[in-house]
Design a protein that fits this description.
By secondary structure, the protein is of the alpha+beta class. The chain folds into 6 domains: 144 residues, 3-Layer(aba) Sandwich (Rossmann fold), CATH 3.40.50.140; 134 residues, Topoisomerase I, domain 2, CATH 1.10.460.10; 125 residues, Topoisomerase I, domain 3 (Distorted Sandwich), CATH 2.70.20; 121 residues, Topoisomerase I, domain 4 (Orthogonal Bundle); 84 residues, no CATH class; 30 residues, no CATH class. Strands 2-3-4-1-7-8-9 form a 7-stranded mixed beta sheet. The chain has a 7-stranded antiparallel beta sheet with strand order 18-19-20-21-22-23-24. A 6-stranded antiparallel β-barrel has the order 10-11-14-13-12-15. The longest helix is centred in the N-terminal third of the chain and has 29 residues. The radius of gyration is 31 Å and the shape is globular. It starts with a strand and ends with a helix. Keywords: DNA-binding, Isomerase, Magnesium, Metal-binding, Topoisomerase. It comes from Peptacetobacter hiranonis (strain DSM 13275 / JCM 10541 / KCTC 15199 / TO-931) (Clostridium hiranonis). It catalyses: ATP-independent breakage of single-stranded DNA, followed by passage and rejoining.
Length: 706
């Protein structure tokens, strides 16, 4: 019997698999054992060919050549990873290799990575599929006992191929048509353009918004020495109205009257934990809490999954686990029974885990279950700050789902004053439950002691006041809210949304102001030039649904692709026949050192940059960038300007410091530790249990002791 070749997606995953399969003979680009040979891609090794791969005339962008729609799209080896492709191809062709195991990431894109490589090699050997949701030794071992024929995943490959080909046909043609027509670098795509349009719509809503004043009434009543606030409520249940006269009349009407208690109740309620994380939800929370971009969060979760083996597969759109995972939950809790999680984890381990449909549901798990910890114990000091923060989010959410609900008494009181209704609600927490894991409580999570009332009793009204406010415009989008809108409108997938947002920034169609996302002039103009349907979230959402149907064998790939080709032809005609104009409004007087054209000043996620206006010239020059270094005077983030030895840190408060003196100052600080730092370090050392914690001051303290 011949050897089995295992194809992983990345070297780290390949080495983990090789270790489990007892492959010891490490070579250049693969590891060999008695029964298995494990090799890997470097992400994609093969991709769709550029237009010039079909005909050299396409090297020059011309409108008359569009649309470019080959009968069959072909693939090419990516030049920068060509050596690894040749290594994999040689292994695939080896006479002693009789079987292939696809062990790339278990998802649509992972399927594409492997199938493109194998198809490009021309090798036709029996193939099986490893489908696992974590990279632990245990998961890999179990996975190899449950290998299935790769044919089971053929429709998933069709869906991945359709996605890639649709993006190529629409992206290549629309981008070339717009760029040639308006002589500007205008990037356009099947998902990115509707996403950009979502940001534009929000800008328009904010611009068109007209604030309205609203009014309400607050009264204070006295009860056993306590002051209770009650709010007026009309017959429709509203606590405010836009008509001030209505409120003024009610105030005059109730003056001098007591309040009579009409209804009074105390109900014990339970508040259950939020659901487990999928990728979208953790990207949203990481953006809200830490300001991390969607791409930063994805790469961090990927590192915790791939490198540290602490979390399960991140590119999931499910917030549930499947029933076969239930038996592993206790081991996962044991793995996180450390540090700040110990109290709650220990409590969970004392009891039998209660399973409910709120987090275990096979029907809600298609490819992968929610992001949860693996059975691997964490060494927290091995994690970066970013990894530690993301890990913390996942573990707290995981333990919350398994722990007790928050319990509280909700006191409701309804009074009547001169025929008008006034109400109040109070929350008195009896048991924190899962909220023990979170130090910062929500604003409404207050401990209240409320007097006991009787229906029919009269209460003295202490004061009456008119309240007022203004309606607020919709808030600007940030990465968290943009991800929510993309998910709601079925734009992209959990695996692709981060890259789509990142591309909109790198194409200078979006920029950031603090956490807010702003559409640039270029972005606004682009939306004015793009065919109407290509901006439509509804159409793109329908395409995504069809891609899902292809993976479920409910739609033929060719039917979908013919629709994409027909639409692409129409879109090009619309662009060709348009009489719209495009104008750079960020042109500077700086000339490009390479081609002599003027440079455009653009904002990136990290600062400001000059970019050559000539679409055939790629010259870029950084003007300034926002750094993570903090101003020693006001503690805001410093901006780095200049080039070479003239680089200088600048703060909005007026502080300035040369890069060289900044570096010297940091070196000195690194060798010192403050009293506060030392006390904190000693306190940690005196803890009863010796836990591993990240401690940036240990080295500095050690030096002081010498």
């Amino acid at each position: 019997m011949g050897k089995i070749l295992v194809l992983a997606e990345k070297p780290s995953a390949g080495k983990d698999i090789a270790n489990v399969l007892k492959c010891k003979n490490e070579k250049n680009g693969y590891i060999e054992g008695d029964k298995y040979i494990v090799t890997w891609a470097l992400g994609h090794l093969v991709t769709l060919a550029d237009p010039e791969g079909y005909n050299q005339k396409y090297k020059e962008w011309k409108m008359e050549d569009l649309p470019i729609i080959p009968k069959y799209l072909k693939t090419v080896v990516i030049k920068k990873s060509g050596k690894q492709y040749q290594k994999v191809k040689t292994l695939l062709e080896r006479n002693d290799v009789s079987e292939i195991v696809i062990a790339t990431d278990a998802g649509r894109e992972g399927e594409l990575v492997a199938r493109w490589i194998i198809e490009k090699s021309g090798v036709k050997k029996p193939m099986k599929r490893l489908w696992i949701s974590s990279n632990t030794d245990k998961a890999i071992k179990e996975g190899f006992t449950k290998l299935e024929s790769s044919k089971k995943y053929d429709r998933l490959y069709d869906s991945a191929l359709a996605r890639a080909e649709a993006d190529w046909i629409i992206g290549i043609n629309a981008t070339r048509a717009l760029t040639v027509k308006y002589n500007a670098q205008l990037s356009c795509g099947r998902v990115q353009t509707p996403t950009l349009n979502m940001v534009m719509k929000r800008e328009e809503e904010i611009k068109d918004f007209k604030p309205k004043k609203f009014y309400g009434i607050e009264v204070k009543v006295k009860k056993a020495g306590s002051i209770i606030k009650l709010n007026w409520k009309n017959n429709k249940g509203n606590t405010s109205v836009f008509n001030e006269e209505v409120v003024d009349k009610i105030i005059n009407k109730i003056k001098g009257n007591d309040a009579e208690v009409k209804k009074y109740s105390v109900k014990t309620k339970k508040n259950y934990s939020p659901q487990l994380y999928d990728l979208n939800e953790i990207q949203r929370d990481a953006n809200k809490i830490y300001g991390y971009s969607a791409k930063e969060t994805l790469s961090t979760v990927q590192s915790l999954y791939e490198r540290h083996k602490l979390l399960t597969y991140p590119r999931t759109d499910s917030r549930y686990i499947s029933s076969d995972i239930v038996d592993t939950l206790k081991d996962r809790v044991k793995a996180v029974n450390i540090g700040d999680y110990r109290k709650v984890a220990s409590e969970i381990l004392k009891r039998k885990i209660k399973v409910s449909k709120s987090f275990v549901d096979d029907s809600k798990v298609v490819e992968h279950y929610a992001i949860i910890p693996t059975e691997e114990r964490a060494f927290l000091n091995d994690l970066t700050t970013k990894e530690r923060n993301i890990y913390d989010l996942v573990i707290k959410r995981f333990l919350s789902v398994l722990y007790d609900p928050e319990e509280y008494d909700e006191t409701s009181i309804e009074c009547e004053i001169a025929g008008e209704k006034f109400t109040a609600k109070f929350k008195n927490i009896k048991k924190l439950g899962w909220k023990e894991l979170y130090s910062n409580q929500d604003e409404d999570d207050v401990y209240s002691s409320v007097a006991i009332f009787k229906e029919g009793e009269k209460l003295e009204v202490g004061s009456i006041s008119k309240t007022e406010g203004k309606t607020n415009p919709p808030s600007r989008l940030n990465e968290a809210s943009l991800l929510t809108i993309m998910e709601k409108n079925n734009l992209g997938t959990v695996a692709t949304r981060a890259d789509i947002i990142d591309k909109l920034f790198s194409s200078f169609l979006l920029e950031k102001k603090d956490k807010d996302i702003i559409i640039t002039s270029k972005g606004k103009q682009l939306l004015g030039l793009v065919p109407e349907k290509l901006k439509s979230a509804e159409m793109t959402s329908e395409w995504e649904r069809k891609l899902q149907k292809i993976s479920e064998n409910k739609l033929n790939k060719n039917v979908f692709m013919n629709e994409i080709k027909d639409y692409s032809k129409k879109a090009i005609d619309d662009i060709k026949n348009s009489d719209s104009q495009f104008k750079h409004d960020n042109l500077t007087r700086n000339k490009c050192p390479e081609c002599g054209h003027y440079m455009l000043e653009v904002k990136t996620k990290r600062g400001k940059m000059l970019v050559c206006e000539n679409r055939e010239c790629n010259t870029r020059k950084m003007l300034s960038q926002t750094t993570n270094a903090r101003c020693p005077e006001c503690h805001k983030k410093l901006e780095l300007r200049g080039e070479g030895e003239n680089k200088i840190f600048v703060c909005s408060c007026g502080y300035r410091e040369k890069l060289s003196s900044f570096n010297n100052r940091k070196k000195e600080e690194k060798n010192k530790a403050s009293k506060k730092d030392i006390n904190k370090y000693l306190k940690n050392q005196n803890k009863k249990e010796n836990e591993n914690f990240n401690n940036p001051f240990a080295d500095a303290l050690a030096k002081l002791k010498k």
